[in-house]
Amino acid sequence: MNDLTYSIHEAGHCVTAFALGVPVIDVQLCDVTQSSHCNCVLKNGVFDLPVLLGGIAAELILRRGPYGSAWPSGFQELSPEDWNRALRLIDKLAMQTRRETETVIREAQTRTTEILVTRWDQVRAISDALRQRRVLSGAEAWAVFQRQSPPGVPLPVAPPKIVSRKIVRGGW
Ligand SMILES: [Zn+2]
Hints:
globular
């Protein structure tokens, strides 16, 4: 992976989070010795799934254009860490059947792709800012997001607020 791919990946998490009202703490593009990350405040609900899948979805769009609901097999390999987080979350939600689980995953994939295709200018802009500055606070990322808001797409009037400071930071 190169800088562009990493920055698009993190911007994918960030834009999905903003679009869904999930607060972003910071986004960082690191060199190879550390992992890049987008720290968000997740609520451990099914609504978090698109945020977790946002990095992978953004990479897929960068490589081969929007997939709609049909993600290629092996997409998990783009980020096993993100994918495992998504699986752990689904586990917690205690889906009853395999079919139920598959439906939830498919819906989350479709939703994530839709968000990022609609907001691709915002993904590119945050990715560009990340490559220039390496780290953006949640407020700085929000300012870029706001500037690049696509016409006709409703923008939340204020960035989602970080209510609790008791946050477990993790790189993804
Ligand atoms: Zn990720």
